[in-house]
Amino acid sequence: MDTTGRPSEEIYDVVGIGFGPSNMALAIALEEHEATSPEQPIRSHFFERQLMFGWHRNMLLPSTTMQISFLKDLVTFRNPVSRYSFISFLHASDRLVQFVNNQDFYPTRHEFHQYLEWAASSLSDRVTYGTEVTAIRPVADADGQPGLLDVEVRGADGTTSVVTARNVAISTGLVPRLPDGMSAGARVWHSSEFLSRYQQQPPHELRNVAVVGAGQSAAEITRFLYDSLPHAEVSAILPSYGYSVADDTPFANQIFDPNAVDEYYFGTERARDSFWRYHRNTNYSVVDADVIRALYQRSYDEQVRGSQRLHFRNLTRVAEIEHLGDATKVVLHSVLDGTQEHIVVDALVFATGYDGLDPARLLGDDFDRNFKRDESGRHQVTRDYRLVTATGLTCGVYLQGGTEHTHGLSSALLSNIAVRSGEIADSIVLRRTRAELADAQLAHSAV
Ligand code: FDA
Ligand code: NAP
């Protein structure tokens, strides 16, 4: 045994990198495969750098709700009778009846987090927490073919181990993005680190705070700061004229259906472009209507009272910032008239979004050259979510995330994780069966 907590000589069928909802759904799909085909066990293990399970913990703000139905959980769209469903969780928590009485499709993020923790607790033998995968390298298998992958894992104590696998499933999640040239600091945070950084501050020292962005994160944090710091001036720096609503109406929502993946994947370039042109506003730079109304209500109440501490600076982008000890100077560029002004704040939150998962970060330049890219330089990906190899590699690098350009808008979301994980599990099983058949035929013909 070593850092990974696993016998190091074992060759896994698949090693999962990251244990967020996507790879949890894969772990469950593999477990359920084993239950139905015990003669074909799939050897798998997952590595998660957090010390315990957590799903965007720093954004678990009070009253925030899920942006998908509770039925888009880890399993239901793939296996409605799975013991890992949200409904099973409610039943186990003795809350199913009350949940139904509440008549709400969209649980709080707090409750969904409880659900994910509940599911993770039953999967604890499949994951090692406090372990970060730092590199993936190809190695030859017994036949001298490049059919295996060495996965380098660093434990919380800094020690490094290597595990070997036929496939990896990279599911390392979104990468926080700050505007070019800006850096985080003691009182300058990206939204992904918000709660833990905020909770370290004495509230009375936060008299003047600002939130950058016009997406869901920005609106939720602005509302939270306004409600939590009744003495503070709160500025919302919006690149748009006002917050735009997230389109979650039924026809538009169909773009997240499992079938839409095929239509996107096999569609023409023009069809894929239409998905984005017409439906980007289902997810990016948009806000749920209830949060928009909650913010407007607060602003209107201030007008009625005749006192204002909630300031919306619209058509404004942050041009640069200067760290001044605990304070920050924020240079604001007006898109309306091109003028610049600055404000000085005690805390600045960049709710400026995320970049997608990029597998090259883990593969490294040398190994990454083995995989094909399209004309725009993006990785080519098979329908079953594997990177397309340019060489004779027979090992598989599966992606859960980072496939918006090939599989569509649900790539970075929860909507399709149950079905996608089932497809990846099936693909791993099928490829292994084919390889075993090929080996058997070879052995037979050699006799
Ligand atoms: P996720 O980011 O959840 O998990 C990745 C895991 O990999 C993390 O636990 C990380 O620690 C780990 N990791 C990273 N690098 C590693 C390494 N090198 N080694 C080991 N571990 C590593 N979508 C939706 O459909 N409905 C919703 O309601 C929401 N809500 C929402 C709220 C907020 C605040 C954000 C920022 C995003 C959402 N999303 C969402 C979108 C979000 O991408 C989605 O909910 C899931 O987090 C996707 O799950 P993944 O497992 O793919 O990534
Ligand atoms: P986002 O939707 O990408 O929004 C980022 C915002 O920052 C955009 O308005 C962007 O404007 C703005 N921005 C970027 N640079 C700027 C600058 N220099 N000055 C001013 N504004 C700037 O990111 P997000 O809100 O973090 O959402 C990311 C994902 O998480 C989405 O899927 C969202 O639905 C999800 N989420 C869900 C919940 C929930 O479930 N309750 C909560 C939070 C987030 P431009 O558009 O002009 O670039």
Automatic annotation (TrEMBL):
<comment type="similarity">
    <text>Belongs to the lysine N(6)-hydroxylase/L-ornithine N(5)-oxygenase family.</text>
</comment>
<comment type="pathway">
    <text>Siderophore biosynthesis.</text>
</comment>
<keyword id="KW-0560">Oxidoreductase</keyword>
<keyword id="KW-0285">Flavoprotein</keyword>
<dbReference type="InterPro" id="IPR025700">
    <property type="entry name" value="Lys/Orn_oxygenase"/>
</dbReference>
<dbReference type="Pfam" id="PF13434">
    <property type="entry name" value="Lys_Orn_oxgnase"/>
</dbReference>
<protein>
    <recommendedName>
        <fullName>L-lysine N6-monooxygenase MbtG</fullName>
        <ecNumber>1.14.13.59</ecNumber>
    </recommendedName>
</protein>
<dbReference type="InterPro" id="IPR036188">
    <property type="entry name" value="FAD/NAD-bd_sf"/>
</dbReference>
<dbReference type="GO" id="GO:0047091">
    <property type="term" value="F:L-lysine 6-monooxygenase (NADPH) activity"/>
</dbReference>
<keyword id="KW-0274">FAD</keyword>
<keyword id="KW-0521">NADP</keyword>
<keyword id="KW-0503">Monooxygenase</keyword>
